[in-house]
Structure formats: structure tokens, C-alpha cells
Amino acid sequence: MFNRFYRAKKEVTESETSSRQHHTLWGDAWVRLRRNKLAVLGGSIILLLALAAILAPLYLKYDFATQNYDAILVGPSTEHLLGTDELGRDVFSRLIYGARTSLAVGLFTQLVVLMVGLPIGAIAAAAGGRVDNLLMRFVDIMYAFPDILLIILLRAIFGGSIFMIFLAIGLVAWVGIARLVRGQILSVKQRDFVAAARAMGGSGAYVTLRHLLPNSLGPIIVAITFNIPRAIFAEAALSYIGIGVRPPTPSWGTMIADGNNVIYAAPYLVIFPAIAIAILMLSFTFLGDGLRDALDPRLRR
């Protein structure tokens, strides 16, 4: 009888522990995110595409830059799954290697955005007064510049390498994150736990790093996720007009621009990279929607 009572008590304790282990914002967010089928689908597509791009040299039959003048504008076949372009290059290989460019520009530009926008927004909100006013007027000035024009100007200054493209797009896109961080920190500053931390002697930098920023991460993560497809589209647009990634590095925007010259003879040269851009952007959008719902405190159990 004692053994049965001990086992029953142990089962109740384990069930209570398992039910409590997700009673945090991040634990509940992870549970809700896994239950969102579209978010899981988007994340799975992104992960599969990233693995395909990283492992490309291990399974691709053709190099993305190898030209074959005996197989120019050959349609999709068993030899060339997605056909060949006007120079006889395998479209499937270029599409996979182009995924490297798109994913890299999406991730690295957001790293630049965080490195620039997050400190400016945090300092403006934490300092307040003249510092806040000065930094926000600088943000307004940057926001007033046309994005494409500013990217072209930065490209002319820093050069046209692929890393400079990432830097230029990131230096244009940081203003939104700066405003978001400032707004989130200003709302969190009014809460009681921040006043308690200051009353206990916490310095301004300590309160900002220990309390203000961690409690503002949810909306920032969602915004970064939504900004990734915008950066991917910006790179594709720049490559399409000829000021993006330089050949022979493959880019989906460059593939569309090259295929546009022979669109009536080989429409697949435009269709396949356009579909790839749409799928990747939708995947990040689905993931961003899922993160937004998962990190919403109003939906917390």
C-alpha cells in the first residue's frame, strides 16, 4: 500500500513539473510556435533550403559557372532538372547556389541592422532628453532618404563586393529597428520592476541591459524575422537592375534579369527563380507570423 501511494505521489509530482516547465514566456512561446503549422512549415522550408545550399558541392552534378555551348537553352530534362540558360549553365545548380546569396543577404543584413539600430534605439530611450531628441532626429533624416538611392550611393562609396551589398542594405534598414527598440524600452521603463531595480542602486547601463532590453526582445525578434524577406527582395531587385551581386556569383535577381532577355524562348529561366524568391519570402513571412503570435503576452497561458 505504501508503494502504491509513493508511486501515485511521484506521478503527480512529475505531471506537475512537466506542466510547470513551460510556464514562462519563452517556454509557452516555443509550445505555441510548434503548434502553428504554417510557422513550422516555413521554418522547415528555410532549414531545408539552407542545408541544400550549404551541402551543394556534395550532391550537385554541375558547377554553377561551367558553360556548355552544346547545351544552350535546353529545357528541363533528366540531364538538367531545370534546364540550362543562354550560356549552357545548369539552372538547378545556379538556383541552389543563389540560395546561398539570398539567405546570406537576409541574415547578414539583419546583423548589421541589430548592430546599428539596437544601440541607437536603446541609448535614445534610456537617456531621454536632448540625447533622445538628437538621435531621433538623426533617425528621421536617415528615414527620409530613398532606400534604393541611398544603397546606390553607399555601393559607389564602398565598392560592389557582395559583402558591401550586405552592408549597404543593412545601413538602410536599421531605422525601423531603432524606432521599435526605443518604443519598446519607453513602455517598459514605466513598469514597477524597473523602478525597483533603480531603487536598489542599479545604474542606467545595468537596468538597460538587465531589464529593459531582455523584456523588449519579443517584438524585436519578430521584426527581424519580417525584415529578412525584405532584404532578400531588395538584393534581388538590385541584382535585377544590374547593381547587385556581380557575375559569375549566382543571384536569383540576376537569373531573372538574364532570363528576361530570352523569356519567350525559355520562360523557365524567369519562372524558376521567381518561384524560389516567392517561396523563401513566404516561408519567412509564415515564420514571422508564428513568432508574433507565439511571443504575444496576451496569449500566454
Task: Report what the structure shows.
- The protein has 301 residues and is mostly helical.
- It has 13 helices and no strands.
- It has helices at residues 2-20, 25-35, 37-54, 56-59, 91-127, 129-144, 147-158, 162-188, 192-199, 204-212, 217-240, 252-260, 268-294.
- The radius of gyration is 25 Å and the shape is elongated.
- The two termini are 37 Å apart.
- Residues 11-22 have low confidence and may be disordered.
Summarize the structure.
This protein is mainly alpha-helical and about 300 residues long.
* Largest sheet data: none
In percent, how much strand structure appears in the residues? under 5%
Q: Give start-end ranges of low-pLDDT stretches.
A: 11-22
Instruction: Measure the end-to-end span.
Output: 37 Å
Shape: elongated
Average pLDDT taken over every residue:
80
Helix content: over 70%
According to DSSP, the number of beta strands is 0
In DSSP terms (H or I, runs of 4 or more residues), the helix count works out at: 13
Write the H/E string, N to C.
HHHHHHHHHHHHH
Quaternary status: single chain
Rg, rounded, reads 25 Å
Output the structural class.
Answer: mainly alpha
Task: Give the topology, please.
Blueprint: H1 2-20, H2 25-35, H3 37-54, H4 56-59, H5 91-127, H6 129-144, H7 147-158, H8 162-188, H9 192-199, H10 204-212, H11 217-240, H12 252-260, H13 268-294
Helix pairs in contact: 2-13, 3-5, 3-13, 5-6, 5-8, 5-11, 5-13, 6-8, 7-8, 8-11, 9-10, 11-12, 11-13, 12-13
